[in-house]
Amino acid sequence: MKLHEQLLTIRLSQMKDAQALMDIDALVWTDRTAPEPVLWPSREDFLQHCPPASQLVAEADGTLCGYVGFRHPTNLSGNRHVYEINIAVHPAYQREGIGARLIGAAKIWAAQEGKLKLRLRVLSTNPGAIAFYRKCGFVEEGRLMEEFWIGDRYVDDIWMSFFLDGKKD
């Protein structure tokens, strides 16, 4: 069933979402999209790193199909205006606009929380994600050359950002 035939709800994550979020991580975060696959050893470990209300989740007709997580990149008070985000959409729901809706919701959420900047990291071997982030208004802010050895080659770690006040410098 296509997304346009379903009701999509975006809300803050809850304790009950943990297993579905862990399942999405296992499907999405592979050696093509992350420095190493994300496989949580336990529900408790997941909840320690991703507590309830640290993600906006998308539900299509009651099925959790994606999320955008957000956190402060450091504990420094001078860095509290920034959220670092990560986004994942279940493969069965990709290319239906859910990712764009999640990014849009994250921008609204972050602005309401008084944040000025969203940032993310993406591997140079993931051109689809890079194009998606650019389409969502993110710009490349920096690149760590040959930061990871994945498979049989070195891969760049690209840092991208979106300024919520429209600033791009």
UniProtKB/TrEMBL annotation:
Record's keyword terms, sorted: Acyltransferase, Transferase
Keyword RNA-binding: no
Pfam families: Acetyltransf_1 (PF00583)
InterPro entries: Acyl_CoA_acyltransferase (IPR016181), Bact_Acetyltransf (IPR050832), GNAT_dom (IPR000182)
Taxonomy, superkingdom: Bacteria
Signal peptide (residue range): none
Location of the N-acetyltransferase domain: 8-165
Protein name per Swiss-Prot or TrEMBL: GNAT family N-acetyltransferase
